[in-house]
């Protein structure tokens, strides 16, 4: 009779275990994050000469950022602070001394806003008015909180460059 009670109790708890396992993980607390952003070079080719031309504003871009991203799941807010480095994907130097592109530049990161996440996406709404929807994959989940995640976003930036952005984050 005791074994029947144990089996009955196990089956009674099963829907809760399944619903918990299928629940969207929370992003909560501090995460150490690395973000990379790569934007395409946009060149044009003269069909007569084969000459490749890259406008100064289309030299492509590579950014690497390291930050602490803090999530408040109850309020649906996030903040990030850290630093990044950015450079053009190509640096052309012309015979007249001018150039296209730019050398690496370091900068500070301080951003935040609201966020929401599902099983497959995380949406960041920054205080600057930019909304970014990333595809997300969660790592291990402890007590409903994702211990890590990887997210990717494809976009066209303010300068018309097609970019890929990825974030890898580990809960602290």
Describe the fold and architecture.
Helices cover 12% and strands 53% of the residues. By secondary structure, the chain is mainly beta. The protein has one domain. The protein has an 8-stranded antiparallel barrel. A hairpin with a 4-residue loop joins strand 4 (61-72) and strand 5. It is elongated and about 60 Å long. Mean pLDDT is 86; it is low at 7-11 and 13-20.
Low-confidence stretches: 7-11, 13-20
The rough form would be described as elongated
The domain tally reads 1
Proportion of beta-strand residues: over 45%
Order of helices and strands: HEEEEEEEEEEEEEE
C-alpha Rg (nearest Å): 23 Å
| Helix vs. strand class | mainly beta
Main β sheet profile: 8 strands, antiparallel, barrel
The strands making up the biggest β-sheet line up spatially as 1-4-5-8-9-10-13-14
Secondary structure tally, helices: 1
Average pLDDT number: 86
Distance between the termini: 47 Å
Number of strands: 14
Helix content range: 10-25%
What is the assembly state of the chains in this entry?
A: single chain
